[in-house]
Write a structure and sequence with these properties.
The structure is a homohexamer.
Chain A lengths: L5 E3 L7 H7 L4 H7 L11 E2 L6 E10 L5 H7 L6 E7 L10 H10 L3 E8 L2 H7 L3 E6 L11 E2 L3 E3 L2 E3 L4 E5 L2 E5 L4 H23 L4 H4 L3 H7 L2 E3 L1
Parallel strand pairs in A: 3-4, 4-5, 5-6
Antiparallel strand pairs in A: 2-6, 3-7, 3-10, 8-9, 10-11
Helix pairs in contact in A: 1-6, 2-6
């Protein structure tokens, strides 16, 4: 967070097995499994519907209007990584487009999460290179100022350490600390199993009021039914 | 509006026949037919394109970060209802997801209108359960505070009384008071009939200036043509 | 900018040949070719994905909640024009819908760019009449106040003179002054040619760091690699 | 809400005695006394700090960019009234300035609450005519479209019926239904009395944890203290 | 608008006499006198209340996060100028602070209008150097990219040509084209004279309805009074 | 960040001497001294002008609409602390008012930084208890959900660890990591010394262009002066 002009080469990525397990779950489930923390702000939206990814974070700190560090980050990408780009100030410029996506993909990146703008969204969609961003903008950027790569960053309100697991889908983006990845995957699996049962009951017309035994606490809280 | 902790069991729903008539028209038409009032703010957007619904309102007042009352509302749903959820303060949390949608649908609800966030949007889209919301967010909510069900609420800037007709499509959401439903449906039909004629003329190249006889009032207002 | 109640009949449109050349390029490319100026704000979004247009601007200055001048503008449209509507104050009302689109298309318009709201988006999508707007709203407007047609306007932060070339796609909207249209088209073509080569290299795994020879300037700027 | 072009002459104002009692309390206290409902959105800000008013609502429904109905409303003002102006769509134009304030004051109005913009704020401040608004804007408005006066309106997210009590200060604006005014004033007085005692204890260093007996419920909820 | 890297040395400033006349009027009055055009967006706010200035524009085009051109602009300032800074993309960084204000003032500048952020607002307030800006931010900027000085710019939605008159007060900022300065000052004076009479009548309790003879047009438009 | 329901009793506060040194500098200076990082978003504004504080952070993680943890935090306050409250989702409710301020002050707190709303701002101003917040709102909150105290939080986009130094003034809020406090204070002092010399030159009419020797790099970058 406090070092500009730094590129960290060796980062401790979350274990591949845990990432793969997490990739089976949606963001809402992972967020619950993690204890309702770690979500990016809801202004982060996918550029096309239906994408779902899980990968390990390579982090980047950008300056407004400057995408130099994305080129530096490209070299740090390993297969299965998700590039997570934060910015020192709110900026909707188009920091990333189809050429960088081609480069990132060639290095093995599976997605970009950027607290800024992107462009060439039609090409990116055609390539199926998923991006979650705060904006879409054709505006280009310069290459003049040093940020950093692979330092802790705050992206869209969430702290991301290099190597953390990023899970993203149509509901948004959640960050799972590398050390909690395996445990969170287990909790997500348990949650999903329990949801299957609930879904069946609810579909059959059972009320959540009864299934979750809410009638008593509601009455205690003072809920009154009137005609 | 001013009673927390209340669930009204019996509400006067708009007549089914009027609701069905209204379901044939788009929101823009209904809004015009109603006299250009009753629209929710344009930040209310459908989670997927192409949905169009009309139904009777079951209203809910939520607190930020708390979806307890949606479970209470489920029991009040009758076939053909649209659940309309307001919140005591702006909040983009994901109050509603696929499990609640399963329950609402089992009860007969045809849509949710919520001045808050929703999650599981991929699942909701797959289920074709339409939702109009102010945000999409994976963030879960708690069940701790009493709001109310079936009281008048202000949702996205529009007053909604239980039983009012809700019409929603890609253009947004409009509220038709139950007492005006039949009359509004008639006005909408008349409007649509008149639009068909206009459309034909405009498609043939006739100008609105001539068709609507605007040249004289424009000249009177002082419009000048220059070369 | 400073004349209300004026309609300019004769405007100098950019040459058709230049417009056609520009129509082959995306907004991001044109914006770069023009020297990174002339973009509208990124809040201007297409009502459906995949549209791409280039045309000559017929400009309109509206007042909030009043679409009278769009009818006046219709008469000024020539085949290949794009109507560009600015507003004297921020307003998200639905100034434009399917009837006006029918009329505009009959006159030869290929798109609408409006710093306001539009409605009937399902119909507009079905008609494939592309619109870039700041909002979608079912709210209708009145016909009471004189604005102007074919004067210079500021639309979504960009100055547009009548006759300028408008290029729009999923990335947004860019304005090319009529006098620069041919030159910009050439620059865009050159840029695109050079990008094809770069794309190939990047896809083969060459790093931008090497391809753009960034390593030396980065080191000079003080970038440090750590383990 | 659903009648345009209507001016209601006779409205049932809250009793003067209750309004006067309410005028002794801040908005936060009244809002609590009312059961935590009835607040306008926090974007409603006073044009100068330190104003505090309580009065009975004369309501106005405006259209974007049109302040005609404010002139109509002036005639309906009685001494002690607060004019509450809603708008059919979000609009930041300057609907109100020093001339209208002079007129409103001559009729006995004590404040304006407007979900729109105002201008002449230096003059209004010098006159000490308090206004709570969503914006400050020098932009003038026209007089062309009928809204209504003294119908129920939704202003900044709150339902206001003519005659309701409006209480406003630096914290915002709250609406007290006329029928609840006396009871709310009593509850506010009780609350304020109880707060005086609490304030003394807290100032002496007693913790809210102890004063409100929160330690047990916190422990029950699972709060853990670690070193 | 379309030339980056340009500094225009000689600009045609509005006549000093006209500027001085305009300095006697508030922004709302000037905006009306100009025909209700030329206003910047209402998000432009003064950093302290009570400032009022009129001066001739020296324009600057900045890039996000880069204030290099403000230093270039300093040399172009002549006594009585107002520096007007636009940015190629929305950015709230603190482009300007107390040191630059010291320099600008030494050159004779009377104010800064910036579609971006400023810092050192306490010092600027103590110096009584007035600034209208979109934000306050302590964040510093770099000096790396060429913009331009004294080209036409769009600042907060308004076109500003070098030499135009800028009038700013608590209500916002208005731009008067140099060629219209004298005429606008006259119209403003006439308007203010007429307002003095109206103010007196309104203060005496005369209604705008009668003074402006609105009763007949309102009745014609269909306004109905009910009890 | 990832532990809910935790209160950390012992935190390593930055050294008092460093905090005192930092208290002599404005936020803009400290932010520069720290290397242009660590700023909170500019939407964080003081509730009254002129406050300036430096203190050590006691951190709190809140849930939307729930201020329970502020009471828990009160017990952790030591003289000279600044309470920094983050929220798991954007919420503008009034989490804090005059009673809590009384309690915080009794414990020795010198300010509150809250990514949410506050109320009783007139009383807080009268008490001179400074608060930087994202909103002012009279809306009260509940006490139902466990957050945490003294864990790392992201507040208004900045990472804050318990014990870090918070510096806040009219320009905003900056976070100095405890370990960097002394060094940052030195850098700030050096910067301020150098600024005094520059200020004198600029006030005498020397241009930044010359003082900072920018003419050559500007020419190299291609800046052209035209008449």
């Amino acid at each position: 967070m406090y070092e500009l002009g730094i590129v960290r080469r060796n980062i401790a990525r979350a274990e591949r097995a845990a990432v793969e397990k997490l990739s089976a779950f949606g963001v809402a489930t992972v967020h619950e499994a993690l204890g309702r923390v770690g979500l990016m702000k809801p202004y982060m939206r996918p550029i096309y519907a239906g994408a779902q990814v899980a990968g390990t974070a390579v982090t980047v700190l950008l300056h407004p209007g400057d995408n130099w560090m994305l080129h530096v980050a490209a070299e740090m990408i390993q297969p299965g990584d998700v590039v997570v780009a934060a910015c020192t100030a709110d900026c909707e410029d188009g920091f990333f487009g189809e050429l960088l996506a081609t480069s990132f993909r060639a290095r093995g990146a599976v997605a970009l999460i950027i607290d800024g703008g992107v462009r060439d969204v039609r090409d990116l969609t055609a390539m199926r290179f998923p991006v979650w961003s705060r904006a879409i903008s054709a505006k280009g950027t310069i290459k003049a100022t040093l940020g950093s790569v692979n330092i802790p960053v705050v992206c869209a309100g969430a702290l991301v350490n290099p190597g953390d697991v990023i899970v993203a889908d149509d509901d948004g983006v959640v960050v799972v600390p590398a050390a909690l990845a395996a445990k969170t995957a287990e909790a997500a699996a348990a949650r999903e199993a329990s949801e299957a049962q609930k879904r069946e009951q609810l579909a059959a017309g059972v009320l959540g009021l009864d299934m979750y035994k809410m009638r008593e606490p509601l009455a205690k809280a003072g809920l009154r039914y009137v005609d």
